[in-house]
Amino acid sequence: MEEGTAKYADRPFVLPLLDPTVILPSNVIDEVKSLPETRVSIDANNKRRFFGQYTLMGTKSPELLSAIKQDLHRNVSNLLTEMMEEIRVTTDSLISLTSESPVKSLLVYESMLRYITLVTGRIIVGLPLSRNEAWVGSAINYAVESMKAGHQLRTYPVALRPWVAPFLSAVRRLKDHQSKIMTILHETVLQERLSPANSTKVDETQGRLASWLIQHYRPMSNKDVSEWNLCKDHILALFAGIHIATNAVTQVLLDLAARPEYQQQLLEEIDSATSESENNTLSLGMIAKMSKLDSFIQESLRVNPPGGVVTLMRETTAPFRPSCGPLIPKGTLIAFSNNRFDMATRTKADVDHFDAFRFDRERSSGGSKHHLLTPSPDSLTWGYGIHACPGRSFAATEIKVIVIHLLTHFHLRLKGGKERPPNQSFDFQIMPDMSAEIEFSSRTNLGNH
Ligand code: HEM
């Protein structure tokens, strides 16, 4: 990507990904960001790149989008207490320190996968289901098997895929997770919610996503809502919410552990913002005061983009001629470079340089007003334009609450005081090193147990 953007600063070029993709120059991003599905399609891209016929990718419903964009977004503040509780319980189960064992080393990615899955589940389906291990396993592994299924399917010619798919091991495991999620949801949430005879008031902390979806599917009448649609929407929400957020929070923690000098500064900011808090509760207002934390996370995700080397991945659904030319035929996969790899106007040293508080400085000097949550051509973590991530206020809050909780309780250090391990990359994806470990030691005196 770096070679391409340096060489073709204002022209498209083809990046040889598993699905070759036309990379457009960043100066035409405004021409693409809000094009309708009839011109370029995010769903067609997802369906094709991730084998949506088998994995369901690219088949999200408008109702799911409304539930995330409106209900989840509007409720982030009300959900904070539950998010914090889930993070505290998960921390207690993963990191319990005593004077005899004052340091705990954890595989960061694996541990964060658990935090994010439990917090996401707590919000969308609620307790006790969110901590049920069968649910947690299928919620995590659905996406893992989807990726594997894609790799297996790719090895067969297109015409043969529908015939071989039912026999491929990953496709079978994928279907297995799909039916487990359906059965669990049916028994715990959907049967009750969809029953016309049900007149009892439902517990609002359970089955939240189902309630939001049902309201969008039947705004007025008692029209039938299909259980399959509701399950599919849950699966796609888990798919969209778990893995990319795990990738992101892992990168942030690795950056913090590799740069201990920032831990104290962030802690001071957290202490000052929460000084008036009662019972250690956080509010969105307090979190909003933590501008250095916001900047640190924004910089960590700029340098280690959880979405990979590309952003705004689309398939053209009609011939498209960007102002940089030439005419791009219908059915072409297109994308833009993520900021870190875009060499059109910057040097490699520039984009690689980790400057934790650059966004904070820019904001306080009256320069850019952009925060972590604001999609812009300079900050493409969440995409940009009409499809910019609708779950971003929830995801950013979840990441911040995890970081605040861990920082206030522990010193973080890369295992053995080593250097930050380099990221791993595959196709367009960038992942943190899965074997990286962080040592957690207590900030308070542990006493004797
Ligand atoms: C750190 C975590 C996350 C990151 C970095 C992230 C990033 C992204 C990106 C880059 C896109 C594509 C935007 C585009 O192509 O223009 C996207 C789309 C999307 N994200 Fe996220 N996301 C995160 C978490 C979440 C969560 C927690 C949810 C839901 C609970 C979610 C739901 C979605 C959905 C539904 C879309 C598709 C939007 C559409 O098609 O219009 N994401 N996200």
TrEMBL record:
Domain of life, per the record? Eukaryota
- Identify its protein family: Belongs to the cytochrome P450 family.
PANTHER family linked to this entry: CYTOCHROME P450, CYTOCHROME P450 MONOOXYGENASE AN1598-RELATED
> Pfam families from the xrefs?
p450
The UniProt keyword set, sorted, is: Heme, Iron, Metal-binding, Monooxygenase, Oxidoreductase
What organism, scientifically named, is this protein from? Answer: Penicillium cataractarum
Cofactor (UniProt): heme
> Mind telling me which Gene3D superfamilies this protein's record contains?
Cytochrome P450
Q: Which GO terms describe its molecular function?
A: heme binding; iron ion binding; monooxygenase activity; oxidoreductase activity, acting on paired donors, with incorporation or reduction of molecular oxygen
InterPro entries to which the protein is assigned, alphabetical = Cyt_P450, Cyt_P450_CS, Cyt_P450_E_grp-IV, Cyt_P450_sf
Gene Ontology BP terms: mycotoxin biosynthetic process
Q: What is this protein called?
A: Cytochrome P450
Please list which residues make up the signal peptide: none
Q: In which residues is heme bound?
A: C389
